[in-house]
Inverse folding.
């Protein structure tokens, strides 16, 4: 449970004193021992990561708070000193040579806060937390990405001493200033065609082992969306769900979609298994291809016509003549609210325009 998001876990196995469950899509699993009727303890293993991929945890049944509003030994909840509702200009790694710009959008009711951070690399999905005194706490967990944010809210409309933990393997600082006009660069201008002499060409096997090429008869004279993605990527999952609906709606009119997968596990068997889980979970009707490459570097090498692949997902829109008409970097998922709805409207309008040409 992350704010309004609900993730249903179906793969559960229980014994007399233990319980095991796998998260949907992402390659992660909980292995737990029961402690009475209201407590379980165990290990969460995240196979997506190669190092520091196991974290001990404790879960208590019936707890209604994510962050305890009462100090230890106190019967009184801490009241918030400030309300952070609104838009914030955020900087991750503010003291480094290459800081990362972001926009924070939050809604606070009482001490409870929901919202997210939008970046040029997509968003941090459904964050939920509290303001206790002048301490801001936010977190989310989708099965593979445990995010925890902390910051100090100040009277001067700033958040300082920001800390961001990504599980036990990553930690960075951040800060924010209230700014209702805070904005990011245009996601359609970040990745572009650097070499106009190179066409979009690839030939990879799909999950069933069959080679698929953009030159195949199925894609001739069609509008084609190419999604650069990975089964490990939560923003790719958000976009995949949207693309599935787009395909069902527009495929009869001539739309085709191909997902090029850049898996973190280089083992082709493991990579195929992960993609099969994604395909089943989202009921993906179009081709997902195993590129055999990993990371942004692998994606950039496989797409030499592009200046760079900044992040996943990166999405190419190709018209009926085979020309790349638009490249969209990142994805504003459902946690971004109005930004997500605007993006869906733009996607629908642009697909309809290409189909009508």
């Amino acid at each position: 449970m992350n704010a309004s998001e609900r993730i249903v876990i179906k793969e559960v196995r229980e014994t007399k004193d233990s319980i095991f469950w796998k998260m949907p899509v992402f390659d992660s699993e909980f292995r737990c021992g029961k402690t009475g009727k209201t407590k379980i303890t165990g290990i969460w293993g995240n196979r997506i990561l190669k190092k520091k991929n196991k974290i001990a945890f404790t879960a208590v049944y019936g707890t209604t708070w994510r962050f305890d509003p009462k100090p230890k030994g106190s019967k009184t909840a801490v009241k918030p000193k400030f309300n952070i509702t609104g838009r914030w200009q955020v900087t991750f790694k503010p003291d480094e040579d290459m800081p990362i710009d972001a926009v924070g959008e939050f809604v606070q009711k009482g001490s409870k806060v929901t919202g997210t951070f939008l970046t040029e690399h997509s968003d941090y999905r459904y964050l939920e937390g509290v303001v206790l005194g002048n301490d801001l706490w936010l977190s989310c967990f989708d099965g593979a990405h445990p995010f925890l944010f902390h910051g100090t809210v100040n009277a001067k409309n700033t958040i300082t001493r920001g800390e961001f933990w990504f599980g036990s393997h990553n930690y960075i600082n951040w800060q924010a200033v209230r700014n209702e006009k805070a904005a990011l660069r245009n996601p359609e201008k970040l990745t572009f065609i650097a070499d106009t002499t190179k066409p979009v060409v690839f030939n990879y096997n799909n999950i069933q082992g069959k080679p698929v090429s953009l030159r195949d008869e199925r894609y001739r004279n069609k509008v084609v969306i190419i999604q650069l993605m990975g089964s490990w990527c939560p923003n790719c999952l958000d976009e995949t769900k949207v693309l599935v609906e787009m395909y069902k709606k527009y495929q009869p009119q001539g739309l085709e979609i191909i997902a090029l997968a850049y898996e973190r596990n280089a083992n082709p068997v493991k990579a195929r298994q992960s993609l099969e889980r994604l395909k089943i979970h989202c009921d993906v009707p179009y081709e997902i291809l195993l590129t055999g490459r990993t990371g942004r570097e692998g994606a950039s090498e496989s797409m030499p016509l592009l200046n760079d692949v900044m992040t996943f997902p990166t999405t190419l829109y190709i018209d009926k003549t085979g020309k790349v008409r638009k490249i969209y970097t990142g994805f504003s998922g459902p946690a971004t609210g109005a930004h997500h709805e605007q993006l869906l409207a733009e996607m629908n309008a642009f697909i309809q325009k290409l189909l009508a040409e």
Q: What stands out?
A: Residues 298 and 352 are 32 Å apart (CA to CA).
